[in-house]
C-alpha cells in the first residue's frame, strides 16, 4: 500500500499552500510605478540636455555674428581713407584692391542695422552696401549677420583714427542683453 501511495500524485490538503503561477496585482502595480519613475527621470534628463544644447547653439550663433561683424569692420576701418558715423550708419571709403570689380577708384561701404527685425529669434541684421565713388543706394544693402538689438550698433571716433565700435546683441533667455565694444585703428590717420 505504501508503494501505491508513493506513485499517486500528491494533492495538498486544506492547510497546505499552493504554488503561485504569476504576479499578484500589488506586485504588478509596484513594478509599473518603478518603471514610470525611471521613464520620467530619463525624459527629464533628455529635456534638460535638449535645452542646454539649444542655449549653447544660440550663444554660438551670437558669437559667430559678433566675430564676423567685428573682423569685417576692423578690416575696412584699418585701410580706410575716410571714415564717418552719422545717423546710425558707418561709412568707410578705401582704395579698391579687387574688392569691387569695375571700380578703378574708391570703394564706399556703408554699414547699418536693418530697419526692422528679421524675426523674433534673429533680431536686427547688420547690413552692408557698397558702391564705387559714392554712397550706395538703399537697394544695394544686403544683410551680413543677425542677432542685434534695435539700436545695437554705434561708432564713435575717440582719438585721431581710433574708432570705438559698440554692438548690443539681442536679449538671451534670461532677458539680459550683451554689449560689446572694441576699438579699430585707421592706419592712414594713425601714421599721419
From TrEMBL:
Q: Which residues cross the membrane?
A: 21-47
UniProt cross-references to PROSITE patterns, sorted A to Z: PROKAR_NTER_METHYL
Question: Any idea which UniProt keywords this protein has?
Answer: Membrane, Transmembrane, Transmembrane helix
UniProt entry tagged with the keyword Transmembrane: yes
| Name of the protein this chain belongs to | Prepilin-type N-terminal cleavage/methylation domain-containing protein
Q: Which organism is it from?
A: Billgrantia ethanolica
Amino acid at each position: 500500500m505504501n508503494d501505491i501511495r508513493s506513485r499517486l500524485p500528491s494533492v495538498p490538503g486544506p492547510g497546505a499552500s499552493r504554488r503561485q503561477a504569476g504576479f499578484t496585482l500589488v506586485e504588478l502595480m509596484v513594478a509599473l510605478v518603478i518603471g514610470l519613475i525611471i521613464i520620467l527621470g530619463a525624459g527629464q534628463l533628455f529635456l534638460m540636455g535638449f535645452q542646454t544644447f539649444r542655449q549653447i547653439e544660440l550663444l554660438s550663433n551670437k558669437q559667430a555674428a559678433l566675430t564676423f561683424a567685428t573682423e569685417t569692420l576692423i578690416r575696412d576701418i584699418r585701410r580706410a581713407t575716410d571714415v564717418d558715423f552719422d545717423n546710425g550708419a558707418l561709412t568707410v571709403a578705401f582704395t579698391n584692391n579687387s574688392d569691387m570689380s569695375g571700380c578703378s577708384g574708391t570703394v564706399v561701404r556703408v554699414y547699418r542695422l536693418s530697419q526692422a527685425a528679421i524675426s523674433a529669434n534673429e533680431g536686427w541684421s547688420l547690413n552692408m552696401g557698397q558702391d564705387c565713388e559714392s554712397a550706395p543706394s538703399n537697394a544695394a544693402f544686403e544683410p551680413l549677420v543677425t542677432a542685434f538689438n534695435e539700436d545695437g550698433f554705434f561708432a564713435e571716433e575717440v582719438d585721431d583714427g581710433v574708432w570705438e565700435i559698440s554692438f548690443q546683441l539681442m536679449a538671451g533667455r534670461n532677458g539680459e542683453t550683451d554689449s560689446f565694444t572694441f576699438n579699430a585703428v585707421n592706419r592712414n590717420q594713425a601714421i599721419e
